[in-house]
Design brief:
The chain is built from three helices and no strands. About 25% of the residues lie in helices and about 0% in strands. By secondary structure, it is mostly helical.
């Protein structure tokens, strides 16, 4: 598992890759006493309120930067590669 701490590093692979530990589904929701919320409608209401209070996550912007060599104007031939994913039901 990526959340298991490596003894020699004292870090988990997830901490090395993401900078923090992974949250598992049981850890994402505040624990409640089962006697407190016995009605399913109350539980759903409690869960909705809890989720509304969660802070938004910071998103990453992924962009692929293209590279054009500066001396391309002096080239006599250029290979153009058409490498893209095919759409569904597109002939090969």
């Amino acid at each position: 598992l990526p959340s298991v701490v490596k003894e020699d590093l004292d870090f988990s692979p997830a901490e090395l890759l993401y900078g923090s530990t992974l949250g598992f589904s049981g850890q994402m929701i505040a624990p409640t006493n089962s006697e407190q919320i016995s009605d399913p409608a109350d539980y759903v209401h409690h869960l909705q309120n809890y989720i509304k209070e969660l802070p938004p996550l910071i998103t990453r912007v992924h962009s692929i930067k293209s590279f054009v060599p500066p001396d391309i104007r002096s080239w006599t031939h250029v290979f153009i590669r058409y490498d893209f994913a095919k759409q569904p039901l597109q002939p090969s």
